[in-house]
Predict the 3D structure of the following.
Amino acid sequence: MKIIAIGQNYTEHNKELNSKHPTEPVVFMKPDSAILKNNKPFYLPDFSEDLHYETELIIKINRLGKHIAPNYAQRYFAEIGLGVDFTARDLQRRLKASGHPWEVAKAFDNSAVIGGFLPVAELGDIHQIEFRLDLNGVTVQQGNSSEMIFPIEELIAYTSRFFTLKIGDILFTGTPAGVGPVKVGDRLEGYIFDKKMFDFKIK
Ligand code: ZN
């Protein structure tokens, strides 16, 4: 399986990182070795002094597809969940400045936290999904899928022009504002509406 991730998909997050407003989705990938599941702890890697959380809605692809039209995109998933796109911000800053790819800052081991999923049928309107991250009991990120610059259907249409989507692939849809660093001992709890989707610690 593969993980396709989207950057810069929320205006307020782009402001906090001084990113430009994208004219098309910003896409990067993570390998399957990046997956961290089942609320296992995240061990801080030794190559970053500024390791950031980014809480994101994630889409589980359940059908093979290529060149998917936006109005058919909803046929390719039945569950939406919550994850964390861990980012070595210091490395990413250096890579961005030199115009290099982001992979070592974004696709390293355990950088893709995959929490729980909810059936779309239960979520209702996929353009009105509220989610949040609590860090040590304090809400630090709050988002709503209505704030995405490119909505889920457009992300599926765009990415499937380049990559065949396969059953089990995961799409990370970008993070809202409020990203920040983690340190040893932190507890991260993610929610979609009032349902807890992940709960794990930094070690
Ligand atoms: Zn992200």
